[in-house]
UniProtKB/TrEMBL annotation:
GO cellular component, as recorded: autophagosome; cytoplasmic vesicle; endomembrane system
Location within or outside the cell: Cytoplasmic vesicle, Autophagosome; Endomembrane system
Keyword terms, alphabetized: Autophagy, Cytoplasm, Cytoplasmic vesicle, Lipoprotein, Membrane
Chief localisation class: cytoplasm
Membrane topology: Lipid-anchor
Biological processes annotated in GO: macroautophagy; response to stress
InterPro entries attached to this UniProt entry: Atg8-like, Ubiquitin-like_domsf
The protein's name: Microtubule-associated proteins 1A/1B light chain 3C-like
SUPFAM superfamilies: Ubiquitin-like (SSF54236)
A Pfam family annotated for this UniProt entry: ATG8
Gene from which this protein is expressed: LOC113091138
Organism: Carassius auratus (Goldfish)
Amino acid sequence: MPPYEKSMEMMPFKQRKCLATRKDEVCTIRSKFPNKLPVIVERYLREKKLPLLDKTKFLVPHELTLGQFLSLIRSKMALEASQALYLLISGKNVSCLSASMGEVYSQFRTLMASST
């Protein structure tokens, strides 16, 4: 992969795509898959030890809990039991692991859409 593509890949998703583009993508995805939620997962910029995921975009069902999603991400990263993994919403919020992805989306959707 050329250096330019690699550096673009390391940029946060919100810097790679403008707000209007992200909103358009969400509308398209939500119309094609009304029972799924688009989720972006990125490693914290200062994190050095956790492996990178092979993809950042996920489509998850509304009823999937945050705990189940965390388990899915852990398995994709092949983390050991001793390694900690935290999910932050918009880089600073933490939600209850028993909350469904639909509940989390409803609670934080305006914050997620507008923050840059």
